[in-house]
């Protein structure tokens, strides 16, 4: 491959990522090929590589949307974006009131991505690693989002997760999340940590994000976390106006 050919291939891949990122819903192969002026086989080969590298992912509909690797990279610069600058004081308030780490998570496919965090001042604390991903079906930050997805979408996600998890138990947990307004987890993704999370909902009731407060289980017990639920929900409500529906992917 010549330098020019390599450059053209890279540019096409970047344009495909941009086209998918600009859409509020998954984009099909034929539409992307037409938009880019590419043959369907050429577009498919590029998309397959981007999917293998997790820059894009396939939706249940078969279309493409942004993947976890792209979200992880974006998380490195998101804290400088206006919406995250405005969200940071809320996380700071939650961290101050609880004494624990407060984090903001966005959905990327079947995972929740940590995009903003304010860490506890304690020496022993939950570290907020930007770009870290956890399954939506496991842990409080993901379940707070999953519990409020449309039923068909949530069902499809649980079907995909059924190879690795007891989905009947997850269904019960999600029912409790909807009834309580928050998700609670103890060591689900991080042994020794307890977390509580609530959704940030759009005006239409779609989950745009979740906010979690978590810390060492010896200090941030399940009882303490539950007592904090109303404060967490109140602060999540304040964030709702910051997030456009397009972020709820």
From TrEMBL:
Gene Ontology biological process: glycerol metabolic process; negative regulation of DNA-templated transcription
Gene3D superfamilies registered for this protein in UniProt: 3.30.450.40, Winged helix-like DNA-binding domain superfamily/Winged helix DNA-binding domain
Span of domain HTH iclR-type: 7-68
SMART domains assigned: HTH_ICLR
Domain annotation IclR-ED: ranges: 69-245
This protein's UniProt keywords: Activator, DNA-binding, Glycerol metabolism, Transcription, Transcription regulation
One MF annotation (Gene Ontology) recorded for this entry: DNA binding
UniProt function note: May be an activator protein for the gylABX operon.
PANTHER family: HELIX-TURN-HELIX TRANSCRIPTIONAL REGULATOR, ICLR FAMILY (PTHR30136), TRANSCRIPTIONAL REGULATORY PROTEIN (PTHR30136:SF39)
Protein name: Glycerol operon regulatory protein
Native organism: Streptomyces davaonensis (strain DSM 101723 / JCM 4913 / KCC S-0913 / 768)
């Amino acid at each position: 491959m010549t330098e020019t050919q390599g450059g053209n291939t890279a540019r096409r891949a970047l344009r495909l990522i941009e086209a998918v990122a600009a859409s509020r819903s998954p984009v099909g192969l034929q539409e992307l090929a037409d938009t880019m002026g590419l043959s369907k086989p050429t577009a498919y080969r590029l998309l397959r590589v981007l999917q293998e590298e997790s820059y894009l992912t396939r939706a249940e509909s078969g279309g493409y949307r942004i993947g976890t690797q792209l979200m992880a990279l974006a998380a490195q610069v998101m804290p400088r974006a206006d919406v995250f600058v405005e969200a940071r004081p809320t996380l700071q308030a939650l961290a101050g009131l609880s004494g624990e780490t407060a984090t903001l998570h966005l959905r990327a496919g079947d995972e929740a991505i940590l995009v903003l965090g304010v860490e506890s001042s304690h020496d022993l604390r939950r570290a907020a690693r930007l770009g870290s991903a956890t399954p939506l079906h496991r842990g409080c930050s993901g379940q707070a989002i999953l519990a409020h997805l449309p039923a068909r979408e949530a069902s499809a996600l649980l079907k995909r997760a059924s190879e690795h998890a007891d989905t009947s138990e997850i269904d019960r947990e999600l029912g409790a999340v909807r009834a309580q307004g928050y998700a609670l987890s103890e060591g689900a993704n991080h042994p020794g940590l307890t977390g509580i999370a609530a959704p940030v909902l759009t005006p239409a009731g779609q989950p745009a994000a979740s906010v979690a407060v978590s810390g060492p289980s010896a200090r941030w017990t399940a009882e303490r976390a539950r007592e904090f639920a109303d404060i967490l929900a109140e602060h999540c409500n304040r964030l709702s106006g910051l997030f456009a529906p397009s972020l709820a992917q």
